[in-house]
Amino acid sequence: MGTVILILGVALWAGAHFFKRLMPERRAAMGETGKLLVTGALLASIVLMTWGYKLADPVWLWVAPSWTVHLNNLLVFIGFYLFAVSGLKTRLHQRIRHPQLSGFKAWAVAHLLVVGTLQGVILFGGLLAWAVASVILINRANRSWQRPPEAAMWKEGVALVGALFAMLVVGHIHGWLGPWPFGGA
Q1: What CA–CA distance (Å, rounded) separates 108 from 167?
Q2: Under a CB-based contact definition with an 8 Å cutoff, are residues 7 and 52 in contact?
Q3: CA 48-51-110 angle, 5° bins
């Protein structure tokens, strides 16, 4: 039952995000009510994904070598950094069209490396597929990309520090709620 709930959560996440991309007129016509519905659907999807993942009996597909935890942490850090790049509009943002979705993809790949269960493939593989499809949909809808203006170099440093701080905070929360992400414990 947990795996079914997990699949429903991933599908709801993707559907709520794709609603704006696939039906922009309908979404725009809904105004603020549409925003609230999408937000509610996204929150519900997170609850379903978390609940389904925790409820499901793991079906092991592989056991990751111990060194992959380090690669996982590097990719997760890159994911946080790319989110900061997007928010701060750093110089790197001039080279990467979709830094948030790129960061999300790095996060998903990182987790696929270390979570060798069917449920991990459903959750992280499903979210990776959603992020890839999102980039494709966005690029098809808007083929031209206006690069952001050049940013001050200090923003890169702020993005690095912010990503490190976010990774440490989220990592500790991850350790309270599930496995310790930094190895050894």
Answers
A1: 15
A2: yes
A3: 85
Place of tokens 């494709």: 136
Quote the CA–CA distance of 134 and 128 in Å, as a whole number. 10
Length of the chain: 185
Along the 185 residues of the chain, how does pLDDT read in single tens digits?
999 999 999 999 999 999 988 998 898 899 999 899 999 999 999 999 999 999 999 999 999 999 999 999 999 999 999 999 999 999 999 999 999 999 999 999 999 999 999 999 999 999 999 999 999 999 999 889 888 888 999 999 999 999 999 999 999 999 998 889 987 65
In single-letter form, the type of residue at position 63 comes to V
Q: Give the largest CA-CA distance in the chain.
A: 52
pTM of the model: 0.92
Q: What is the 3-state secondary structure (H, E, C) of the chain?
A: CHHHHHHHHHHHHHHHHHHHHHCHHHHHHCHHHHHHHHHHHHHHHHHHHHHHHHHCCCCECCCCCCCHHHHHHHHHHHHHHHHHHHHHCCHHHHCCCCHHHHHHHHHHHHHHHHCCEHHHHHHHHHHHHHHHHHHHHHHHHCCCCCCCCCCCCHHHHHHHHHHHHHHHHHHHHHHHHCCCCCCCC
